[in-house]
Amino acid sequence: MRLDKFLKVSRIIKRRSVAKEIADQGRILINDRPAKSSSQVVAGDTLTIKFGNKTETVKVNQIVETTKKSEAESMYKIIDETYAENFD
């Protein structure tokens, strides 16, 4: 499955156009390699996604073409979540 579609279906990113834009800016890594929006994602891959202040690392558990909101979280497991700055 394409990276941008996986991010949308799994609801990590809500819109496919936003997922495509982030990937094409070089802010997503698949198994520590830069990824484009058209890169293929398979079960077992590790995705590192850089959102503004937050960096999230997830492991892909399964690939499903369509899913309900309640089942979307079963597609991945969050491994790490770090923040560049702490605003406490």
From TrEMBL:
Pfam families: S4
UniProt cross-references to InterPro entries, sorted A to Z: RqcP, S4_RNA-bd, S4_RNA-bd_sf
Keywords: Protein biosynthesis, RNA-binding, rRNA-binding, tRNA-binding
Alphabetized SMART domains for the sequence: S4
The UniProt record lists the keyword RNA-binding: yes
GO molecular function, one term: ribosomal large subunit binding
Origin: domain of life: Bacteria
PROSITE patterns in the record: S4 (PS50889)
Domain RNA-binding S4 intervals: 1-63
GO biological-process terms attached to the record: rescue of stalled ribosome
The keyword Iron-sulfur is assigned to this record: no
Family: Belongs to the RqcP family.
Complexes and interactors: Associates with stalled 50S ribosomal subunits. Binds to RqcH, 23S rRNA and the P-site tRNA. Does not require RqcH for association with 50S subunits.
Described purpose of this protein according to its UniProt entry: Key component of the ribosome quality control system (RQC), a ribosome-associated complex that mediates the extraction of incompletely synthesized nascent chains from stalled ribosomes and their subsequent degradation. RqcH recruits Ala-charged tRNA, and with RqcP directs the elongation of stalled nascent chains on 50S ribosomal subunits, leading to non-templated C-terminal alanine extensions (Ala tail). The Ala tail promotes nascent chain degradation. RqcP is associated with the translocation-like movement of the peptidyl-tRNA from the A-site into the P-site.
HAMAP family: RqcP (MF_00871)
Record protein name field: RQC P-site tRNA stabilizing factor
Source organism of the structure: Limosilactobacillus fastidiosus
